[in-house]
C-alpha cells in the first residue's frame, strides 16, 4: 500500500530561500467570497492544502480536503472532512459572504469547517507551521483567530499542536487514528491526555485504555525509561486555570519533519532520526519485538483463547467461500485490528479479513475449509489462526534461498493447511509432527544447527575450492574460546550488527575477528544466518572475508579475517588521527569502497544490497585498504527485481536515503546514497549528522550543497589535508553530491560512480537538489568558520599534488 511517492526534505523558510530560490510568492490565503482553485501553499513550501482524491478499487472516487507535508505526498498531516468525503472531484473550499469557512460539493449540503455567529470579514491562511487558521479581520486591520486546524487534529501531531483540554470550553485536543493505511476515515484509536490524570498521555482503543505513558514527573513520563518520547521528543506540560496540555519540540538532529502519528493499529509512530520509527507499540508483534513497551495494557481475552493465539494469525492470499461466515456492518467502522479482536473474542472464529480493498470492513469465518488460494487479481489477505507455523520454521531454515523464502513461507503454509483440510489422516500425522516440533521448540532448540548451515554453505565451499579459493572452516567453540581468551573484555573490539566482536589468535598465530551472536536476541539469529550465507558467497578484495563459523549449542559465531587498523570512523572523525589518512589514502579508500559496492550490486552472483553502509562498517587492513563489513542487514535481490518494499526498515541515521527511510523502498540506489554520504564524510572529516551552518543547522549534505552552489566546494575538504589535487577533490565532492540527490532515479549507479572517479576527463552532470535536513532545534551547533562571500581557498596555499 505504500505508494511510490517519495519524499522528505526538511527545509526551513530561510533555507528554502537560500538554497532553492522559489520562483514567485506562494498563495497562502483565501479571502471572503473567494473559491479556492488549485491549492494553498505555506510560504516555506513545506505544507500545501488541497483536495486529494483517493481511488479505492470497487468504490466511488472520493476526495478529501487535506494538508500535506510536501515531502510525504501520500499521507496527509491533516484532513478536514475525513468522515464526510466529497464524491468525485467536486469539492471547493470557500469563505462565504457571511465569513464562514466551508466546503461546497455536488453531493448535497455544504460541509462547514467554521460557521460564523454573525457576518464578519474573515480570511483563512495556511501558516508555515502547517496550521490552517481562519481569522476575523477587524476594520482597524487587526486579526483575531476564529478557528484553526491545530485545534482539530487528525492523526498527526505537529510541533505547536496541543494534546489536552481547554477547561473553559471543554474542548479536547487529541488524535484519532485512521481507519486503515488507505482510508483516512476515523479509526478506533485515540491519543490524548487522560481526563482523570491530566498529566498522563493515553492511547485508547474503542474507548478502553490501550497504553498509558505514566504521569509526567520531573520532566519525563514515568513509565517510559529510555523512550524516545522522553529522549527525542521533548514534551512540555502546561497547566493553568484555563487549559492543561502537552506539546513538544525536538532538540536532536531530526532528519525528517518531527511529527508524531497514531497509525491504524494504535502504534505511535515518530518521524525522526531514522526516518520512520515506532515509538510505542502495543499491537502484536510489538514493533517487530516480542515484548510490549512499558505502559501497554494487557488485552482481555475469552477463556478459549490464550495470549499466544494473538501471534498465531497468518495472512494468506486468496478467496473464501461463504461457509460459516459473519459480516460486520459497515456502520460499525471496524479496522483490521478491530476485526482481529472480533475474531479472537469469538471462540469459534478461525479466520478474518477486511471486506474492502482499503482494509476496512470486517468478515470472520468459523472455518477455513472454504479457502482457495489464487494468484489472480481481486484476491485478498485472509488471516487464519495458524497451525502450520512450526512446519514452516523448517522451510525457512533449510532452504538456501532463506532470505527470499521469508516472503513466501505462507505459500507453503497454505499448501500444508489445504492438505490438512482435505485428508484427515494427513492431519493426524501433521499433528504428531507439530507436537514434536513444538516440543523441540520448547526445549529451546533452534532449527538452525551446524549441519543445516554446513549443508547450505558446504556446497558452496566445494565450489569455491574448485575456483581455487580458500575453504570455509568449521571451528569448535573451544578453539574460539581459547583464541579469544574466553571472550575477555580486553579482547573485545566492538559491537557488530547482532553481537559483540572479539579479537582472537589461533594457536598457529593467525589473528581472527570473532563475532558472537548474543544469545537472547531473536532478530540476531536471522541476521546471523543472513550474514553467514551471504558473505560466504562473496569474494572481493574490498569485502571483509569470512574464514569460518561455529555453531554449538546456543553459541553462534562467525570468524573473519582480522583487520588490524580498525574502522574508518576511528580515523576520519577524530582530530588526533585524521592526519594518518592523507588525501591519497582517502581517495584510495573511496575507490575501494566503490569497487566493493560495484561488486555487490553487479558482479557478485547474488546481487546484494548492503543497506547499512557507514563509516564504522568500513574496516581497514594493514595497508589502509577498505573492506566493507557487516552484512547482517544486507538483502539479496533477484536479478530481475529493481525495487522492492520492506516493512522492516533497518539502517543508520544519516546514511538512509529518503525513499527508503520514508517508504521502505529498497533498491541499489539506497546504497548509492549511503556511499555519497560516506564519500562526503571522508572528504570533509565530518559526520553527516552534525550541524555545519551557523544559522540554518544544516547537516553535512546540506552544507556541502550550499558551499558547492556558492562555488566554494574546496571549503568542504578536511582542513587537515594540505597536499591534494583540487580537481580531484572537487570531482569527489561532485560525485558525492550526485549520489545523495533526492530522487533515486537521478543518482548514478555504482558503475557510473567508478567511471566518474577514475576518468578525469568525463563530463559530470550538475547535481540536483539533495536530500538533506536541518536540525530542528540544535542546542550546540558545531559551527565551522563560514565566510559566505569569499571562499577560504583564496587564503590557503595549496601544494598541488598529481592525482594518484
Ligand atoms: C448568511 O447568514 C444568514 C443568516 O444566518 C443566512 O440567511 C444567509 O443565507 C447566509 N449567507 C450565506 C451566503 O450563507
Ligand atoms: C475585509 O478586510 C480587508 C482588509 O481590511 C478589506 O480589504 C476587505 O475589503 C474587507 N472585505 C469585506 C467584504 O469587508
Ligand atoms: C507569505 O509571504 C508574503 C510575501 O512575503 C507575505 O506577505 C505574507 O504575509 C506571508 N504569509 C505568511 C502566512 O507568513
Ligand atoms: C508549548 O507550550 C508552551 C507553554 O504554553 C509554550 O511556551 C511553547 O512555546 C509551546 N511549544 C511549542 C513548540 O509550541
Ligand atoms: C475517571 O474517573 C471516574 C470516577 O472515578 C471514572 O468513573 C471514569 O471511568 C474515569 N475515566 C477514565 C477515562 O479513566
Ligand atoms: C526506570 O528507571 C528508574 C531509574 O533508573 C528505575 O528506578 C525504574 O524502576 C525504571 N522503571 C522501569 C519501568 O523500568
Ligand atoms: C483565563 O481565561 C480568562 C478568560 O479568557 C482570562 O481572563 C484569564 O486571564 C485567563 N487566565 C490565565 C491564567 O491565562
Ligand atoms: C461510523 O462512522 C460514522 C461517520 O463516518 C458515524 O456516523 C457512526 O456513528 C460511526 N459508527 C460507530 C458505530 O461508531
UniProtKB/TrEMBL annotation:
<feature type="transmembrane region" description="Helical">
    <location>
        <begin position="409"/>
        <end position="434"/>
    </location>
</feature>
<keyword id="KW-0723">Serine/threonine-protein kinase</keyword>
<dbReference type="InterPro" id="IPR024171">
    <property type="entry name" value="SRK-like_kinase"/>
</dbReference>
<dbReference type="InterPro" id="IPR003609">
    <property type="entry name" value="Pan_app"/>
</dbReference>
<dbReference type="Pfam" id="PF08276">
    <property type="entry name" value="PAN_2"/>
</dbReference>
<dbReference type="InterPro" id="IPR001480">
    <property type="entry name" value="Bulb-type_lectin_dom"/>
</dbReference>
<dbReference type="InterPro" id="IPR001245">
    <property type="entry name" value="Ser-Thr/Tyr_kinase_cat_dom"/>
</dbReference>
<keyword id="KW-0812">Transmembrane</keyword>
<dbReference type="InterPro" id="IPR000719">
    <property type="entry name" value="Prot_kinase_dom"/>
</dbReference>
<keyword id="KW-1133">Transmembrane helix</keyword>
<protein>
    <recommendedName>
        <fullName>Receptor-like serine/threonine-protein kinase</fullName>
        <ecNumber>2.7.11.1</ecNumber>
    </recommendedName>
</protein>
<dbReference type="InterPro" id="IPR021820">
    <property type="entry name" value="S-locus_recpt_kinase_C"/>
</dbReference>
<comment type="similarity">
    <text>Belongs to the protein kinase superfamily. Ser/Thr protein kinase family.</text>
</comment>
<dbReference type="InterPro" id="IPR036426">
    <property type="entry name" value="Bulb-type_lectin_dom_sf"/>
</dbReference>
<keyword id="KW-0732">Signal</keyword>
<keyword id="KW-0325">Glycoprotein</keyword>
<keyword id="KW-0418">Kinase</keyword>
<dbReference type="Pfam" id="PF07714">
    <property type="entry name" value="PK_Tyr_Ser-Thr"/>
</dbReference>
<keyword id="KW-1003">Cell membrane</keyword>
<keyword id="KW-0547">Nucleotide-binding</keyword>
<feature type="domain" description="Protein kinase">
    <location>
        <begin position="487"/>
        <end position="762"/>
    </location>
</feature>
<keyword id="KW-0472">Membrane</keyword>
<feature type="domain" description="Bulb-type lectin">
    <location>
        <begin position="27"/>
        <end position="147"/>
    </location>
</feature>
<dbReference type="Pfam" id="PF01453">
    <property type="entry name" value="B_lectin"/>
</dbReference>
<dbReference type="InterPro" id="IPR011009">
    <property type="entry name" value="Kinase-like_dom_sf"/>
</dbReference>
<keyword id="KW-0808">Transferase</keyword>
<keyword id="KW-0067">ATP-binding</keyword>
<dbReference type="InterPro" id="IPR008271">
    <property type="entry name" value="Ser/Thr_kinase_AS"/>
</dbReference>
<dbReference type="Pfam" id="PF11883">
    <property type="entry name" value="DUF3403"/>
</dbReference>
<feature type="signal peptide">
    <location>
        <begin position="1"/>
        <end position="25"/>
    </location>
</feature>
<keyword id="KW-1015">Disulfide bond</keyword>
<feature type="domain" description="Apple">
    <location>
        <begin position="304"/>
        <end position="375"/>
    </location>
</feature>
Amino acid at each position: 500500500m505504500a505508494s511510490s511517492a517519495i519524499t522528505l526534505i526538511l527545509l526551513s523558510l530561510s533555507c528554502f530561500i537560500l538554497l532553492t530560490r522559489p520562483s514567485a510568492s506562494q498563495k497562502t490565503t483565501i479571502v471572503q467570497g473567494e473559491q479556492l482553485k488549485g491549492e494553498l501553499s505555506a510560504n516555506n513550501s513545506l505544507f500545501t492544502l488541497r483536495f486529494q482524491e483517493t481511488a479505492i478499487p470497487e468504490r466511488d472516487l472520493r476526495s478529501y480536503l487535506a494538508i500535506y507535508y510536501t515531502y510525504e505526498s501520500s499521507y496527509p498531516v491533516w484532513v478536514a472532512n475525513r468522515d464526510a468525503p466529497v464524491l468525485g472531484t467536486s469539492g471547493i473550499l470557500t469563505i462565504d459572504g457571511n465569513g464562514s469557512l466551508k466546503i461546497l460539493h455536488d453531493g448535497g449540503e455544504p460541509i462547514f469547517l467554521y460557521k460564523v455567529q454573525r457576518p464578519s470579514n474573515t480570511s483563512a491562511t495556511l501558516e508555515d507551521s502547517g496550521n490552517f487558521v481562519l481569522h476575523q479581520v477587524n476594520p482597524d486591520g487587526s486579526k483575531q483567530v476564529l478557528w484553526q486546524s491545530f485545534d482539530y487534529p487528525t492523526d498527526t501531531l505537529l510541533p505547536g499542536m496541543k494534546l489536552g483540554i481547554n477547561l473553559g470550553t471543554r474542548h479536547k485536543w487529541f488524535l484519532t487514528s485512521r481507519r486503515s493505511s488507505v482510508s483516512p476515515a476515523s479509526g478506533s484509536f485515540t491519543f490524548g491526555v487522560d481526563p482523570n490524570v491530566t498529566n498522563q498521555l493515553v492511547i485508547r482503543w474503542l474507548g478502553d485504555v490501550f497504553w498509558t505513558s505514566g504521569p509526567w514527573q520531573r520532566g519525563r513520563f514515568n513509565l517510559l525509561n529510555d523512550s524516545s518520547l522522553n529522549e527525542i521528543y521533548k514534551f512540555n506540560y502546561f497547566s493553568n486555570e484555563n487549559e492543561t496540555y502537552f506539546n513538544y519540540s525536538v532538540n536532536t538532529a531530526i532528519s525528517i519533519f518531527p511529527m508524531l502519528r497514531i497509525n491504524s493499529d494504535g502504534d505511535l509512530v515518530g518521524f525522526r532520526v531514522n526516518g520512520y520509527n515506532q515509538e510505542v507499540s502495543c499491537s502484536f508483534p510489538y514493533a517487530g519485538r516480542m515484548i510490549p513497551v512499558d505502559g501497554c495494557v494487557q488485552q482481555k481475552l475469552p477463556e478459549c483463547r490464550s495470549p499466544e493465539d494473538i501471534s498465531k494469525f497468518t495472512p494468506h492470499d486468496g478467496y473464501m467461500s461463504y461457509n460459516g461466515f459473519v459480516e460486520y456492518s459497515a456502520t460499525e467502522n471496524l479496522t483490521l485490528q478491530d476485526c482481529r479482536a472480533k475474531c479472537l473474542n469469538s471462540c469459534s472464529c478461525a479466520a478474518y479479513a477486511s471486506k474492502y480493498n482499503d482494509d476496512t470492513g470486517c468478515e470472520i469465518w468459523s472455518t477455513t475449509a472454504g479457502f482457495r488460494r489464487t494468484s489472480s487479481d481481486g484476491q485478498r489477505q485472509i488471516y487464519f489462526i495458524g497451525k502450520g507455523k512450526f512446519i514452516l520454521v523448517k522451510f525457512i531454515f533449510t532452504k538456501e534461498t532463506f532470505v527470499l523464502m521469508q516472503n513466501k513461507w505462507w505459500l507453503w503454509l497454505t499448501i500444508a493447511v489445504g492438505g490438512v483440510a482435505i485428508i484427515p489422516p494427513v492431519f493426524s500425522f501433521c499433528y504428531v509432527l507439530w507436537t514434536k516440533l513444538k516440543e523441540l521448540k520448547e526445549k529451546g532448540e533452534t532449527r538452525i544447527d551446524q549441519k543445516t548451515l554446513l549443508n547450505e554453505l558446504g556446497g558452496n565451499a566445494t565450489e569455491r575450492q574448485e575456483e581455487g579459493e580458500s575453504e570455509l572452516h568449521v571451528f569448535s567453540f573451544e578453539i574460539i574460546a581459547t583464541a579469544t581468551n574466553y571472550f575477555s573484555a580486553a579482547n573485545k573490539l566492538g559491537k557488530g550488527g547482532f553481537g559483540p566482536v572479539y579479537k582472537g589468535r589461533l594457536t598457529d598465530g593467525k589473528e581472527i575477528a570473532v563475532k558472537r551472536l548474543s544469545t537472547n536476541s531473536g532478530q540476531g539469529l536471522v541476521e546471523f544466518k543472513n550474514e553467514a550465507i551471504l558473505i560466504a558467497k562473496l569474494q572481493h578484495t574490498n569485502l571483509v572475508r569470512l574464514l569460518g563459523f561455529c555453531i554449538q549449542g546456543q553459541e553462534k559465531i562467525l570468524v573473519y579475517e582480522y583487520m588490524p587498523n580498525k574502522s574508518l570512523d576511528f580515523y576520519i572523525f577524530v582530530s588526533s588521527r585524521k592526519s594518518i589518512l592523507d588525501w591519497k589514502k582517502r581517495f584510495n579508500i573511496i575507490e575501494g569502497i566503490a569497487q566493493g559496492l560495484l561488486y555487490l550490486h553487479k558482479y557478485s552472483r547474488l546481487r546484494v544490497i548492503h543497506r547499512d553502509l557507514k563509516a564504522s562498517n568500513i574496516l581497514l587492513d594493514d595497508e589502509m585498504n577498505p573492506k566493507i563489513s557487516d552484512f547482517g542487514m544486507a538483502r539479496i535481490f533477484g536479478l530481475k527485481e529493481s525495487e522492492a518494499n520492506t516493512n522492516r526498515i533497518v539502517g543508520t541515521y544519516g546514511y538512509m536515503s529518503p525513499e527508503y527511510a520514508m517508504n521502505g523502498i529498497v533498491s541499489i540506489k539506497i546504497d548509492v546514497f549511503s556511499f555519497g554520504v560516506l564519500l562526503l564524510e571522508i572528504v570533509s572529516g565530518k559526520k553527516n549528522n552534525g550541524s555545519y551552518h551557523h544559522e540554518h543547522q544544516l547537516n553535512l549534505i546540506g552544507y556541502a550543497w550550499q558551499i558547492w552552489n556558492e562555488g566554494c566546494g574546496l571549503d568542504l575538504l578536511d582542513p587537515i589535508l594540505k597536499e591534494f589535487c583540487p580537481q580531484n577533490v572537487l570531482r569527489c565532492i561532485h560525485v558525492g553530491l550526485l549520489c545523495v540527490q533526492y530522487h533515486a532515479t537521478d543518482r548514478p549507479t555504482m558503475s557510473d560512480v567508478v567511471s566518474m572517479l577514475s576518468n578525469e576527463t568525463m563530463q559530470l552532470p550538475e547535481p540536483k537538489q539533495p536530500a538533506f535536513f536541518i536540525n530542528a532545534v540544535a542546542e550546540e551547533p558545531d559551527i565551522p568558520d563560514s565566510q559566505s562571500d569569499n571562499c577560504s581557498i583564496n587564503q590557503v596555499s595549496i601544494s598541488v599534488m598529481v592525482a594518484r
